[in-house]
Design goal:
globular; mainly alpha
Length: 80
């Protein structure tokens, strides 16, 4: 079964989430660096912004530079 590409598939939020899912310790150097990158894109209200992508999305996931529920979801899961 083929699925359309996920327009927010590549990014720090997914890399950090994958590392956490694989069991990398939150206090490790890699995770701390990942958290630092994520926090650069965190808004005051706790949501994360969608940044530009070089790939062509299958559908519009949101506006670049605006808070995005999907990026926020994966970033939040990565922070746990």
């Amino acid at each position: 079964m083929n699925y359309p590409p996920d327009p927010i598939k590549i990014g720090a939020h997914m890399i950090v989430y994958a590392l956490r899912t694989l069991g990398v310790a939150p206090e490790s150097e890699a995770m701390q660096a990942g958290y630092e990158v994520l926090n650069r894109h965190r808004l005051e209200n706790g949501r994360y912004i969608l940044t530009a992508s070089k790939s062509v999305p299958a559908f519009k996931a949101g506006d670049v530079g605006e808070a995005n529920k999907w990026v926020t979801l994966y970033a939040s899961m990565a922070m746990k």
